[in-house]
Amino acid sequence: MAPPWVKKLTPSGPQGSELLEQERAQSNVPVKKLSEFLFSKQVLERQGRLLDILKAEKVFNKSQNYFDGREARFQTALARAKRMRQLAVQHRWSQDEYMMASELISEPGPYGLHASMFLITLRDQGTPEQHELFLKKAENYEFIGCYAQTELGHGSNVRGLETTATWNADDKTFTLHSPHLTASKWWIGSMGRTANHAVVMAQLMIDGKSYGPHPFVVQIRDMKTHEPLENIHVGDIGPKFGYNTMDNGFLLLNHVKVPHAHMLAKFSSVDPKTNKYVKPASASLVYGTLTWVRSTIVLQSGGVLARGVTIAIRYAAIRRQFQDRDAKESDVGENQVLNYTMVQVRLLPLLAATFALHFTGRGMMALYQENQRKMAGDVGKVAHTGRGPSPEELFPSTDLLADLHSTSCGLKALASTTAAEGLEVCRRACGGHGYSSFSGIGSWYADYLPTTTWEGDNYMLTQQVARYLLKSARSVLKGNLSENDTTRILRTFLSRRDIGAAFDVLGRDEDIVAAFAWRASFLTFEALKHRDEEKNSWNSLLVDFWRLSTAHSQYLIVKNFHEALQSESMQSELGAETTTLMHKLFRLFALHTLEREASEFFSSGAVTVRQIQLARTKAVMKLLEEIRPHSVSLVDAWHFPDWVLDSSLGRHDGKVYEDLFERASELNPLNALTIDPYPNSEVLIKKDEREKFRSKL
């Protein structure tokens, strides 16, 4: 512990709290109103109420989060998960409240996959009878489960999964088996030490024929002893780059039998009377759960990035380095780092991206919910006819679902990549202190990073987007009249291709959106020419497909951001000045993206070389200057409590250096060890006061 004379020391001149006060005073952004516009007053009130409950619980104290090793962190996470469930029952939390409380704790927990993929899969892919059998017990945490798809040898290629589920006609059961080491389920969240059940994705085998991967509910541990069942080998896969409060696990099955009812059968099944496979009425329906998960990732990406941007911008407003070379002689103090354009050009486009991703995520979820309503309505209409429906009658919205699936693939890839790479930019913008765990960025980045791989590897997903766009382009060329946003922009491009584009990207927001649509359409027809006319192999076009998917997804983000700006609620709730500022953020995001992708915009004919030059030298730099005074207020609007950020550098009150020193000096258990440093001595630890230290926490 520090002596009294150390505790009297303060940082040298202007204090961080004073600098942040000055930053907030120079901006007219109505922070509270902007927060309510982003999240709603109801959501913010819920956050405050839940935060008070969590902070009052000793188990959620975060003071040792950055010091504990993996085993200690997992034990703490398990204790927190149990208490969370108890609080949910005690306070009768809704699913939204439970998920928000999990987000406030800000670490993956041992119940994470149970509360998400396990329950969602049982609910969405189980029959009413299976809901009685599995879902109710899972919702009561009697069955604690996980979703076992990825294998040691297969991740993205789900069709290549090696685990088998063989139908036994004699006793109406399935035998699940891992025929090879590479068939071991791997990376399965909540499986390592926590789950007693798993939804296992396995190749359905009937009379020696494979019908592809299907979901099976399998008990993996004894309900009383929690030991693995016979012929089941299960455990934790070990330490990881991040995500170490989650027990990602492995699973091997040795001819394990499960009853007929354990194959989730809402969409497909095995008829126990005929022993025949009953296929789903529409193959597109299996996209439903994955589309929801990917849409959720898009929705969350803005907030994920905003957390890093909040920390980096607040610290850049406090941190002072060097003097401005062109400053007046009277102004001899060091310059705030945020005043340097090299810092602004790294952080402010990311600030703009947080809003772009947020509005895109909201649009994505609205589209998903619209599709769900339409499909429910379609089923209801057919039900009133009193006859058996055809697949076409039952699922006329599956074209929309296919479009939604493609959109979710592309946006999941781009949004999670933008967030992950942006967090690293934020960390580096914090200088040396960004490398400290106390910055709050490093661990957040490490825990978020697997998002770029799970639910579809980001590079692999771009192939699905390209496949859909090529299919849409062929449809448009054939004169098919089906209409959605994709076919609309492709038709617009074809109608004007010979005339050329004349987009005023520096003067009109609508033309910025049109230029992004033009570029995406151009790349679509170029890829189609390479594939259909020139007969290039699929593999040779993978880089083109990645560029095409990126271009189309960037168009969707720009389009969604622009549409959000046109809403009457923005003008009425935020006022003219803040709405104008949001337009500037839109232009910064779009023009900064255009500048980075300049070659494609130019080659497609969407813009001229002169427009690219002006975007770089005039528009973007001017926007940085205009947005800079409002940057601290804009990150404040994301409404991250200090307890959630758990960051010395991102403190709302600006006491950066005081907090860094407090954590290092007073909270660090390593400082409770007195070691023997001499090489000829066999003694390592001379004095261990860690227990005394912990008792004071």
UniProtKB/TrEMBL annotation:
<dbReference type="InterPro" id="IPR006091">
    <property type="entry name" value="Acyl-CoA_Oxase/DH_mid-dom"/>
</dbReference>
<dbReference type="GO" id="GO:0033540">
    <property type="term" value="P:fatty acid beta-oxidation using acyl-CoA oxidase"/>
</dbReference>
<comment type="pathway">
    <text>Lipid metabolism; peroxisomal fatty acid beta-oxidation.</text>
</comment>
<feature type="active site" description="Proton acceptor">
    <location>
        <position position="455"/>
    </location>
</feature>
<dbReference type="InterPro" id="IPR036250">
    <property type="entry name" value="AcylCo_DH-like_C"/>
</dbReference>
<comment type="similarity">
    <text>Belongs to the acyl-CoA oxidase family.</text>
</comment>
<feature type="binding site">
    <location>
        <position position="189"/>
    </location>
    <ligand>
        <name>FAD</name>
    </ligand>
</feature>
<feature type="domain" description="Acyl-CoA oxidase C-alpha1">
    <location>
        <begin position="287"/>
        <end position="470"/>
    </location>
</feature>
<keyword id="KW-0285">Flavoprotein</keyword>
<dbReference type="GO" id="GO:0005504">
    <property type="term" value="F:fatty acid binding"/>
</dbReference>
<dbReference type="InterPro" id="IPR029320">
    <property type="entry name" value="Acyl-CoA_ox_N"/>
</dbReference>
<keyword id="KW-0274">FAD</keyword>
<keyword id="KW-0443">Lipid metabolism</keyword>
<dbReference type="InterPro" id="IPR055060">
    <property type="entry name" value="ACOX_C_alpha1"/>
</dbReference>
<feature type="domain" description="Acyl-CoA oxidase C-terminal">
    <location>
        <begin position="510"/>
        <end position="674"/>
    </location>
</feature>
<feature type="binding site">
    <location>
        <position position="150"/>
    </location>
    <ligand>
        <name>FAD</name>
    </ligand>
</feature>
<dbReference type="InterPro" id="IPR002655">
    <property type="entry name" value="Acyl-CoA_oxidase_C"/>
</dbReference>
<dbReference type="GO" id="GO:0055088">
    <property type="term" value="P:lipid homeostasis"/>
</dbReference>
<dbReference type="InterPro" id="IPR037069">
    <property type="entry name" value="AcylCoA_DH/ox_N_sf"/>
</dbReference>
<dbReference type="InterPro" id="IPR012258">
    <property type="entry name" value="Acyl-CoA_oxidase"/>
</dbReference>
<dbReference type="InterPro" id="IPR009100">
    <property type="entry name" value="AcylCoA_DH/oxidase_NM_dom_sf"/>
</dbReference>
<dbReference type="GO" id="GO:0005777">
    <property type="term" value="C:peroxisome"/>
</dbReference>
<dbReference type="Pfam" id="PF14749">
    <property type="entry name" value="Acyl-CoA_ox_N"/>
</dbReference>
<feature type="domain" description="Acyl-CoA oxidase/dehydrogenase middle">
    <location>
        <begin position="146"/>
        <end position="253"/>
    </location>
</feature>
<keyword id="KW-0576">Peroxisome</keyword>
<dbReference type="GO" id="GO:0071949">
    <property type="term" value="F:FAD binding"/>
</dbReference>
<dbReference type="GO" id="GO:0003997">
    <property type="term" value="F:acyl-CoA oxidase activity"/>
</dbReference>
<feature type="domain" description="Acyl-coenzyme A oxidase N-terminal">
    <location>
        <begin position="31"/>
        <end position="144"/>
    </location>
</feature>
<dbReference type="InterPro" id="IPR046373">
    <property type="entry name" value="Acyl-CoA_Oxase/DH_mid-dom_sf"/>
</dbReference>
<keyword id="KW-0276">Fatty acid metabolism</keyword>
<keyword id="KW-0560">Oxidoreductase</keyword>
<protein>
    <recommendedName>
        <fullName>Acyl-coenzyme A oxidase</fullName>
    </recommendedName>
</protein>
<dbReference type="Pfam" id="PF02770">
    <property type="entry name" value="Acyl-CoA_dh_M"/>
</dbReference>
<dbReference type="Pfam" id="PF01756">
    <property type="entry name" value="ACOX"/>
</dbReference>
<dbReference type="Pfam" id="PF22924">
    <property type="entry name" value="ACOX_C_alpha1"/>
</dbReference>
